[in-house]
User: Fold these one by one.
Assistant:
Number 1:
Amino acid sequence: MIKNEHQYQVTKSWVEKFQQAIISLHQNEEKKNKDPEGCQLIIGSYFAHIRNLLDEIAEYESLVDHKPEDTLILQVSNIRVSQIGDILVKARIAKKITIQELAILTKRTEEQLKEYEQKDYQNASFDTVTEVAEALGVKFQHCTVISEINDFLGKELTHLRATHQLAS
C-alpha cells in the first residue's frame, strides 16, 4: 500500500523500470533465442509486478482525490486484524488529515503515529487503534468475527497442556 507522496513517486519509477526491463528483454535476441521460455517467464512476472504497482497507484490516487466531506466506504470482506492498519491509513489519506492533526486529535506524538503507520499499526495497542479509528471517524459495520484454532495452534495447546498440566 502506498502511504505518502514519496512512496507514490517511487512506485511510479518502479513501473517505468519494469517497462524498460521488458523492452530490453524484447530487444535481446540472444537471450530470446537461448532461453525463450525463461525470457517469457521473466516478462510475464514483470507484467504481473506492473499490474500490482498500477493497482496500488490507482488506489492511492483515488484516496488523494477523495473529497474529505464525502463518506469513505472501503469494501473489505472477511476483514483480518492485520488489515485494520491499512484501513486507518487509507481513511487518514482520504480525509486529508495530516499526521500532525491526527497527533493532536489522539493526544499521541507525530513520531508515534509515523511509526504506527510505518508498521501498519501492528505495534499499537488495541486502545490506540480504537482512538485513531474514532478520530478518523472509522466505523466497522456488519463485521463478522470468527475465532478458529488452526492445526498449529491446536497442536501447541495440546503440547502446552500436556507438559504443564495447566487448568482448563
Number 2:
Amino acid sequence: MTGPTVKLVPTPSIADARAGIRHVFVRDLELLTSIGVHDHERKATQRVRINLDLAVFEGDRDLGDDLDNVVCYEQIASAVRDVCRKGHINLVETMAEEISSVCLVSSPKVRSVLVRVEKLDVFDDVSSVGVEIERFNPEV
C-alpha cells in the first residue's frame, strides 16, 4: 500500500528581468473567517487558505536595502487579514476580489495580482475548494 498522493501546485512564472518585474508572494496564509452562503456558515468561522502572487515593477532605482523601496509582504498579509476580519462575506469570489483590490492599491509598483482563496473544511473527501483570479492595475 502506498501513502497519500500530494498534488503540487506549480508556482507561476512572474519575475521578468527584461520587463523589470519582481515576483512578491505570500504562501499558504491560513485564517479563520466568516464566509459562506449557508446558515451554518454564518454561525461559525471557517478556515481559508490564501495565496498571493504580485507582479511588482522594480524600476531602475537602487533599493538601498531600504524597506520603503519595495512592496512589503508584511503589509500585504496584514491587509488580507483585515479583509478576513471585517465581517461576513458570502462568496470566496467576493473575498478574492476584495483581496486583489487591497493588493493593487498597496503600491503603484504592483502591476498585477493573482489571488487564490480556498475553503479548507467544506467536504470530508476534498482538501479544498475555492477560486483563483488575476487582476491588473488599471493605472498602468
Number 3:
Amino acid sequence: MSQPRIRLSEIPTTAPKGLNKEDTERQTRHLVKRLGDLQQCLYAEGKYAVLVVLQGMDGSGKDGAIHRVFDACRITGLTLTAFKKPTEEELAHDFLWRVHKAVPRRGMIAIFNRSHYEDILVQRVHGWIDQKRVEQRMRAINAFEELLAFDNDTLIVKFYLHISKEEQKKQLLERVEDPEKYWKHNPGDWKDREHWEAFMEAYEYAINHSAIPWHICPVDDRWYRDYFIAKTLVDTLEKLPLQPPKPDPHFSPEDYRKLS
C-alpha cells in the first residue's frame, strides 16, 4: 500500500499549539547532551555511519540548527559540507560525484547543509534540466542512498526545514537590516523567492519520491526546530545496537602499569 502524498501546504510551519517554550528548551538541552554521548559511542565503535541532510529554503535556519543541535558533539567525529553552486570541475562529472566524496566513513556523522537534492530542486525550478532528467536523477539518488545504507551501514536522516513565506521574508530582511547578519545577504535569495510555488512543488516531488523518508521540521519557531531535530536524531541513534569497545579481558590496568 502506497503512502499518502505529502502536501507541504497542509503541514504547519510553527510549533504545536500548547507546547511550552521554556520546557521544550530545557528538554532540548538534555537531548543535545544525549546526542553528544551517542556520537562518542558511534565514533568509538566505528561500525555505523550517520548522514544528516538539511534542506530548506533560504532563511530556514540550516546554519543555526547545526550550531545548536550538534553543540555537544566532538569535532573529531563530525564532518560538515555546505553544497553551493557547482564548480567547473564538479560540472564536468556526474552530479553525484561531489556528493559521494563527502559521505561519512563508519564511526562518523556527516552533516550536509543542502545536498544532492539541489540538483533536482534549483536546476528544476530554473529550467536548467527537463522533467525526464529530474526523474532520472531521482532514481539515481534513491539508488545512491540505498548503496550507502545497505553497503556501508550508513543511517540517513533527512530533514526538510519547513518555513512559511512570511517568516522567510522576515529572516531575509534581517540579513539586510542587521549589520551582524549582512554577510548572509545574497540578492539571489530574493530572486528564488519569486519562484516560491515552483520550489514547493519541487520539494514535494523530492519528498514524495524518496525511498528513505523525510522528516518535515517546522522552523518558524526556532526553539522548536532545535528540539525537533535533536529529538529525531537521538531517537534514531538510540535504535542502533551501539556497543562501545570493552577492555581486553586478558589484561587488567595492573598489567599495563607493569609495562615499561
Number 4:
Amino acid sequence: MLVAVIDYQSGNLASAARGLVLAAEQRGLQADVQITSDPELVARADRVVLPGQGAFADCAQGLASVDGLEEALFKRVAQGAPFLGICVGMQLMAQRGLEYGITPGFGWVQGEIARMEVGTERLPHMGWNELQFTPGAHPLLDGLKPGDHAYFVHSYALRGGKADEIIATTDYAGDVVAMVASGNRAGTQFHAEKSQQVGLTILGNFLAWNP
C-alpha cells in the first residue's frame, strides 16, 4: 500500500514516516511510506497521514500554499482513503482554529481549536499522559487498554466536539480530547510517532483499518 505523509513544512515528518514503517513491519504489512508534497502522489495514495506542529494558522497556511496539495488531499479522502491527522494535523480536522485569529479548518469534525483552560497547570501540556476510552470504541484503539500513556505537546485543544466523534480523552485540569474519528478520517492530539509501543499500535491499526 502507498502511504502519503504530507510535507507542508510542518511536523515531525521523518519521525512519522519511520513510525509508520516500524508499525507496518510489526504487523507484517507491505507499506511504501512516502514523504511528499506532490499532489499527484497524494491523489493515488492508499492512506494519507497529515502530521503537524506549531500554530493552527501557520499549518493551515502552509498546506494551502502548496499548489494543488490541499485539493488532492480533500479529493482522495472524499474517495474513501483512510486519513490520520497527528497533533496539529488532527486539529485541522475541526471547523476552525482560534490561535492568532480565526482560521477555518477542514470541517471534518465538530468543534473548534481553542487555548486550553488549565487553571494553575502549566501550558503547554507536555509529556506522557493517560488515554481514557471505552474498549472497543474504535478500531484504532484495538490492542490498547484505558490508562495506556501517549506523549502530548500542545496548548490548544478541541472544544465543543461531538460525543460520537471523540474516541479518547486524557485528563489535564479536566477532560482533553486526545483522539477523534469520523468515517474514514481520524486524528490524534498526541504525537503517535513519539508514543513508543502505544503509538506504534495505533499506527499499525491505522494501516490495517478498513473504514
